[in-house]
């Protein structure tokens, strides 16, 4: 079970590293919106309003902290658009 937690932590670290690379790499075109796009893997409700539902396949944008939380919990994965 600790391996599963380690894998989720590594995914969160990978997401943070990818975001840092995007911010520092001038060759990467930054998206117009602020935040991190993720791909939803498991359904969940919005943390703040509780009404918005996210389904597998959705690709919403969240702030970096929230995106990292969703990735660590296995609800989403980082979506890097080229």
Q: Major sheet: order of its strands? A: 4-1-5
Helix-strand makeup class: alpha+beta
Helix content: 25-40%
Please tally the β strands and state the result. 5
* Separation of the first and last Cα atoms: 34 Å
**Main beta sheet: strand number and arrangement?**
3 strands, antiparallel
Number of discrete helical segments:
2
- Proportion of residues in β-strands: 15-25%
Output the radius of gyration: 13 Å
Shape: globular
Task: Average the pLDDT over all residues and give the rounded result.
Answer: 80
User: Any low-confidence stretches, pLDDT <50, length ≥5?
Assistant: none
**Element-by-element helix/strand order:** HEEEEHE
Account of the 3D structure:
The protein has 82 residues and is α+β, with helices and mostly antiparallel strands. It has one domain (2-78). The chain contains two helices and five strands, in the order H-E-E-E-E-H-E. The chain has a three-stranded antiparallel beta sheet. The longest helix has 23 residues, at 2-24. The chain is globular, with a radius of gyration of 13 Å. It starts with a helix and ends with a strand.
How would you summarize this macromolecular structure in one to three sentences?
This protein has 82 residues and is an alpha+beta fold. It has helices at residues 2-24, 64-72, and strands spanning 36-40, 44-45, 53-54, 61-62, 76-78.
């Amino acid at each position: 079970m600790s391996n599963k937690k380690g894998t989720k932590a590594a995914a969160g670290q990978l997401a943070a590293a990818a975001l840092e690379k995007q911010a520092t790499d001038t060759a990467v075109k930054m998206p117009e919106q602020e935040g991190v796009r993720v791909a939803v893997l498991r359904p969940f409700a919005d943390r703040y309003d509780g009404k918005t539902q996210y389904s597998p396949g959705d690709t919403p944008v969240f702030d970096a902290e929230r995106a990292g939380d969703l990735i660590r919990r296995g609800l989403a994965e980082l979506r890097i658009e080229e």
